[in-house]
Amino acid sequence: MSDSTSPGRVVVSLEDLLAQADALRKSIDALQKLRDEVYESLNSVKSSKDAINLLKTQGKDLMLSADRRGYVLLKVNEIPISKVLVNLGLGYYAEIEPDQASKILDEKEDELNKSLQDITQRLNKALEEYTQIAEFLNRAQQSQRSGE
Amino acid sequence: MAERIPPELQTQLLKLQQLQNQLERLTYEKSVIEGELREVNEVLKELTNIPQDAPVYKIVGNLLVKQERTNVQNELNERKELLELKSRTYQKQEGLLRKQFEDLQKKVNELVQKYYPQGTQGSSPPKA
What we know:
The complex is a heterodimer of chains A (148) and B (128).
Chain A: H1 14-57, E1 60-65, E2 73-78, E3 84-89, E4 92-96, H2 98-147
Antiparallel strand pairs in A: 1-2, 3-4
Helix pairs in contact in A: 1-2
Chain B: H1 7-49, E1 56-60, E2 63-67, H2 69-115
Antiparallel strand pairs in B: 1-2
Helix pairs in contact in B: 1-2
């Protein structure tokens, strides 16, 4: 909407800008959370692939952690590696050969990498817009101070 | 002193805000449905890729329960149909809401032009 006193100039209320900045902030937080979740999933997929490769090459004399922190370790002489259970999604698992499992995990990794790229692009765009609004608000605040 | 917005314009702006909120909620719900649908398709694709004799399990609480592959595929196909139906419904609703939103936006712009005419130097907008 143009200002009646000076045609051609666009008037934007500070309330609108603040509301926009708030909405962008929420969007940025949500995207960052999503990005962290995807990163976590990627790390899980990578460690699963590493475990399969390790078992294929050296399936003897392994130490397994009995808990998450590794307070208790169990010595395992040999793990049969003919079949593994792989997560297909939605709580479904299939018992398949390690090579097939690796293939499924590779596909999952590609999918997650694509998602990560998409999220990063959206996040950068939102951050750029947020920075622009923040700069504009700072300028408005400074000009208000100098006008007082 | 802050100017008061004419009641007619205020009412339409409120309606516009409500429509925008509805649209945002609908868009979010639609994206959730589409995410679920993607996941179902992914599992169905994986089921066709793995060997026919490979046992399939479903996680129930902390247990893995063996399932018949055909049952799993039927269950997932039913879920897929339901999600596709929901997705189509949401798409229709979104289209209707968007149309309403655009029409109301035009109306609001016309009211803004009416109450705050441009180019009339120094004329203050009417007080409600």
